[in-house]
Structures are given as C-alpha cells and as structure tokens.
Amino acid sequence: DVKVTQSSRYLVKRTGEKVFLECVQDMDHENMFWYRQDPGLGLRLIYFSYDVKMKEKGDIPEGYSVSREKKERFSLILESASTNQTSMYLCASSLTLMNTEAFFGQGTRLTVV
Amino acid sequence: QKEVEQNSGPLSVPEGAIASLNCTYSDRGSQSFFWYRQYSGKSPELIMSIYSNGDKEDGRFTAQLNKASQYVSLLIRDSQPSDSATYLCAFTGANSKLTFGKGITLSVRP
Q: Up-side HSE of residue A20: CA atoms within 13 Å toward CB?
C-alpha cells in the first residue's frame, strides 16, 4: 500500500513564524502535491513537483514556498505565517501526472494565532 | 470562468435510490478525470477514474465522460448510508495540474 505521511496532525503557530510542513511518500512516486482545504472552497493547489528539485506553482502559491531535495520528501514552507493561512493542509503523491491516482496523507490542521 | 464546477449541494437521497453527481470543467486540454470520496475528518480517496468518452462502471458506481460538452458525472446506484460523504471531481489539465472541484456533500437517508 502507498503510504503518504505528513509530519504533524495538528500544529499551532504564531503570526510571523516560519513554518515547515513535511510530507514523505514511500512508493517512489514522481509527483507530489500540496493542497489546502477550507470550508466552501474545496481543495486548492498550492504547489506541485514532478521531479526532484522541480516545482510548479499551483493556484494559490502566494505566501508559500516548497522544497524537494529528495524524491520521497516534499516540504511546504510558510515564510511568515499569517492568520489567513489557518487551514487543513493535504499532501498527495502520484506515480505519473496524467493517468494515475493521487494518494493523500492524513492532513495537517494548522492554526496560526 | 472557474476551472471546475460541481452541481450545488448538499444532495440528499433515500437509501436504495440513484445519486447523480455532476461536474463541468473549462480546460479542453484535460485528459484524465477522477472522482474522489472524502468522509468527514478523513482524506480524499479515489473511487473512479475515466479517460475516454463514455461510461465506466465499477460495482455500484458509474462514471460518465463527455469531452465535447466538458462534463463528467458519477452515478451511485442502490445508495447506502455508508455512501454519505463529500464527493470531489478532479482532472489533470494540459499543464499537468491536478485540479479539484469544491465537492458536493451526499447524504443517504436510511
């Protein structure tokens, strides 16, 4: 079974802090994604990566950056956390971009106070 | 125009009925289409994928794709209370993004 693991289930951070969300997958998938999910807004793509050290902006990249130094790990970085970044963050991975299932991690509920 | 639109919800059907969920998309370059199910407090999980025009059946689920009209639908036959969840359509566009709709919440009444 594919396993996508996010480093924290719940996280509380202060405004202005630099925040790191980590995601690791164990199936040698090429592609990894970061989404945030908010009530009424659905899943919105922040960034995705199709290869090590490669990244592409999604629909809402502002205030975020990503890092993919190794194939299995994709990190989301909030450069200076703000209260409007309070959300559920979901990481996903897939074997190829076009025709394969994306598997999701368990999610990280981030609260910025 | 939003990239993907799902019919407004929530949707409530009685047990045993057919639930019909619809989704339209704007990117004509889209090639792969998916339906995910998300239970409350859980992460999305894939239930159907469809890549060519027509119907694809898997048990009680049927996905329908019409690329000319740019819509994809999901039919759930013999709906069960365990089908109560949020259903998300998704597609991979020409730019390789995996884009999701906002989701529709289905409630199956016993």
A: 8
| Nearest residue to B15 via CA among B102, B83, B77, B80 | B80
Phi, psi of A105 (to 5 degrees): -75, 180
Dist. CA B25–CA B12, nearest whole Å: 24
Instruction: State which amino acid sits at residue A2.
Output: V
Of B45, B98, B102, the CB nearest to A45: B98
| Residues contacting residue A89 through CB under 8 Å, at least 6 positions apart | A6, A21, A34, A35, A36, A37, A76, A107, A108, A109, A110
CA A104 to the chain's CA centroid: 10
B32 touches chain A (CB under 8 A): yes
Residue B83, helix vs strand vs coil: helix
Subunit contact A105:B43, Cβ cutoff 8 A = yes
Helices (H), B30-106: none
Q: How many CB pairs under 8 A join A and B?
A: 57
Residue A96's pLDDT band, with cuts at 50, 70 and 90, is confident
Q: Is the dihedral of CA A3, B95, A74, A79 positive or negative?
A: negative
Residue A99, pLDDT above cutoff 90 = no
What is the per-residue pLDDT across B5-51, written as a single tens digit (0 to 9) for each?
Answer: 887 679 999 999 999 999 998 877 777 899 999 999 999 999 999 99
User: How far apart are the CA of A67 and the nearest CA of chain B, in angstroms?
Assistant: 18
